[in-house]
Amino acid sequence: MKRNILYLILSVVLSCGAAYLISEKIVDKRMSDADFYKTTEVNHDKVERRRDVPKNLSTDGLVNFSDAAEMAVQTVVYVKVVKRSSRPASVLDLLFGFANTPREEVGLGSGVIIRPDGYIVTNNHVISGADEIEVTLEDNSVYKAKLVGTDPATDIALLKIEANDLPTITLGDSDDLRLAEWVLAIGSPYDLRSTITAGIVSAKGRSLPNYDGQYRVESFIQTDAAVNPGNSGGALINASGELVGINTSIISLTGSYSGYSFAVPVNIVKKVTDDFIEYGEVKRALLGVSMSEINAEMARQLGLTEIEGVYIAEVQRGGVADKAGIKKGDILLEINLNKVKNGAAVQEQMSKLRPGERAVVTIKRNNERKEIIVNL
């Protein structure tokens, strides 16, 4: 009996001691956590690491688009287009006096505010044939928009609303985009306003089939960010919230997103919109050459040591390239130090330039590099 009482007392003492030690550890842990926020002296390295985390990264190193999206979405607008036409008179229309009754068609798209005084960029195909254009901002305020200019060659249009102090997006540099870089697409697909989707840059310098034969300037950014009808004219932004492109089209057998979407690079957009504002029209420089892409077989036939650049197939007699000394058979490598590897890339670089400006064109002739100044 005495032995059982002794065991009971001993177990109580041990339990109390263990509880005391555990509580001390918890208090020490709480104190150390509190001290971390009170002073940076003890855990200085940890504090510095937290401060050095980029804004577009979370503390675990994953990409965080929240700041970029919250800033950019305020600058993306909803575009409503009304087209009016007179439908052909049917027998019933003539009978009941409804001949040539006006018919309204409503189109939807997106746009991006690029200046605080009301300039908005969108796609030409969004507003083509419009009789009335209405713009709804992120705060649900509605404005009638005036068409400043359209450029079917780049599928870019510029609108103007009577407003001031509007939130504007920061224009990035599409030449700096890298393959597999994260991007966001913002717009109003299927009338779902302020929709944000994410993807990566799948390719640069893409061109699409030209079925109508009209002049096109195409050097699209290809992404796998989901884009659907209504996204046209909306923003493609990078992880810093900068505008890098205007979403324009998709490749799809169904009419809906199938994994491929395309955007006009912002460097082309800048040039077109600046021309509209300053000149009222787009001023486009021409080089005066015809080109073909270089493949392995052509490189072998031409005796090239590597596959690069674009082959100059013809030079327009009396054109600026001819006057500058560029010849048929030259390999066009760079325009103003920007490498070109296909006709779309050449068009993209030339679309940034105006008549009267100069360009430094780098060519390869007889496997030797040469820089030529061209007066456009």
Give structural attributes.
single chain; 376 residues; alpha+beta; Thrombin, subunit H; 4 domains; 7-stranded antiparallel sheet; 6-stranded antiparallel barrel; 9 helices
Number of DSSP-assigned strands? 19
Q: What is the CATH architecture descriptor of the largest domain?
A: Beta Barrel
CATH class of the largest domain: Mainly Beta
What is the arithmetic mean of pLDDT? 84
Under CATH, the topology of the largest domain is which? Thrombin, subunit H
Largest sheet: 7 strands, antiparallel
**Rg result:** 31 Å
Query: Roughly what fraction of the amino acids lie in strands?
Result: 25-35%
Helix content: 25-40%
Detail the poorly predicted runs.
5-10, 18-54
| Secondary structure tally, helices | 9
What spatial form do the alpha-carbon principal axes imply?
globular
Strand order in space, largest sheet: 5-4-1-2-3-7-6
Instruction: Give the SSE string.
Output: HHHEHEEHEEEEEEEEEEHEHEHEEHEE
Overall number of structural domains: 4
* Helix-strand makeup class: alpha+beta
Any idea what the CATH superfamily of the largest domain is called?
Trypsin-like serine proteases
Please tell me about this protein's structure.
With 376 residues, this protein is an alpha+beta fold. The chain has four domains: 2-51, no CATH class; 76-160, Trypsin-like serine proteases (Thrombin, subunit H, Beta Barrel); 174-279, Thrombin, subunit H (Beta Barrel), CATH 2.40.10.10; 289-375, PDZ domain (Pdz3 Domain). Helix content is 26%, strand content 32%. A seven-stranded antiparallel beta sheet has the order 5-4-1-2-3-7-6. A six-stranded antiparallel beta barrel has the order 8-9-10-13-12-11. Strand 2 (102-113) and strand 3 (119-123) form a beta hairpin. The longest helix has 37 residues, at 2-38. The chain starts with a helix and ends with a strand.
